[in-house]
Amino acid sequence: MVKKAGVLGATGSVGQRFILLLSEHPDFEIQALGASSRSAGRRYEDAVTWKQTSLLPESAKNILVSECSAAAFAGCDIVFSGLDADYAGEIEKQFVEAGLAVVSNAKNYRRNVDVPLIVPIVNPEHVSVVEKKLTDAQAKGEKKPGYIICISNCSTAGLVAPLKPLVEKFGPIDMLTTTTLQAISGAGFSPGIPGIDILDNIVPYISGEEDKMEWETKKILGGFSADGSEFVPLTHEQMKVSAQCNRVAVSDGHTECISLKFANRPPPSLEQVKQCLRDYVCDAAKLGCHSAPKQTIHVLEQADRPQPRLDRDRDAGYGVSVGRIREDPVLDFKMVVLSHNTIIGAAGAGILIAEILLAKKLI
Ligand SMILES: NC(=O)C1=CN([C@@H]2O[C@H](COP(=O)(O)OP(=O)(O)OC[C@H]3O[C@@H](n4cnc5c(N)ncnc54)[C@H](OP(=O)(O)O)[C@@H]3O)[C@@H](O)[C@H]2O)C=CC1
Ligand SMILES: N[C@@H](CC(=O)OP(=O)(O)O)C(=O)O
């Protein structure tokens, strides 16, 4: 049966991507759209300033945008949030208290010990904490509780994609550095980055981004408490991560230059690293999820790839491209990673998480 989906922050950069992905989805249909009081009460087509290169889907045009109240979303099986983080905290809390399942792009709850922080092509097994909450409540005869699952920061999603198979195969990564070149869609549309700031320019600062990359990576690649109810991130001693973040004049697609050193000596060979990335099949693909990438990591051999305009849409934006894999004279290896920030880094990740929940019969 098709599941009813709601979108909070439906008019924003991430929200618009949700509309595109849901309008073509076989398992979900849009039931409710929410945004600020500036947009509430208007038809979606009138409320939104559409900035996607695909046309606004006909099916979404006439949906009335509502205030972000749990009552307006009561009939939804799942609610995706692309809310401005200044407002997401309070609104999402009310939704969870009302018993709704929320998959959020906002940063507010990512560090809570019992909230999964998921990149669906990397750590979908982290939904087990929610699964436990649901089965515990059922065993006690309580009504199904609401819950929240957070999607990671968009740059973190690209970073952890190659790390996961490398750690699985070759053991822990002792240290890594990454320098990002992030697209302007990552800064959102309200108000968005002024042209005068980004044209002919690079801005070497994105507020909070470096700390998020350094911290979230350790939770995503980390483990669980003994009873499986909480997350235990890796410590700095277990994995040292250093990030430098830059905004560049690219519309979509975050590029990251990564250097890393394995803990185990001797490290794998260059060919073993490449083969490990090529061979990686994410669990979402094994579960047969509709949007799961056919090839999770595309290893590119051309000397000048990946490039955002040419490579961001591989596997419809759900696949990650890794190129220029080579030995590093300081650490062990270096490489360039490209991921679509509003698809696998945001809305697409939300959709794929929902598909995983559906496959596990949690919604
Ligand atoms: N862009 C990206 O690549 C990524 C973004 N994120 C996160 O996703 C979230 C959304 O980001 P993004 O789409 O870029 O942001 P935008 O600024 O483009 O959109 C923000 C959305 O929030 C709504 N909103 C603003 N104020 C309120 C309010 N008081 N009450 C209810 N709704 C409100 C806006 O509605 P209105 O139009 O009515 O003002 C709009 O729909 C953020 O938390 C961001 O950090 C995460 C990963 C990647
Ligand atoms: N900060 C990211 C997008 C974003 O909003 O991330 P987060 O959800 O972690 O705040 C960027 O600028 O590209």
Automatic annotation (TrEMBL):
PROSITE patterns (alphabetical): ASD
Residues at the catalytic site: 154 (acyl-thioester intermediate), 254 (proton acceptor)
Gene3D superfamilies: Dihydrodipicolinate Reductase, domain 2, NAD(P)-binding Rossmann-like Domain
Xref: CDD domains: ASADH_C_arch_fung_like, ScASADH_like_N
UniProt domain Semialdehyde dehydrogenase NAD-binding: residue ranges: 4-130
GO biological-process terms attached to the record: homoserine biosynthetic process; lysine biosynthetic process via diaminopimelate; methionine biosynthetic process; threonine biosynthetic process
Pfam families named in the record: Semialdhyde_dh (PF01118), Semialdhyde_dhC (PF02774)
Signal peptide: none
The protein's name: Aspartate-semialdehyde dehydrogenase
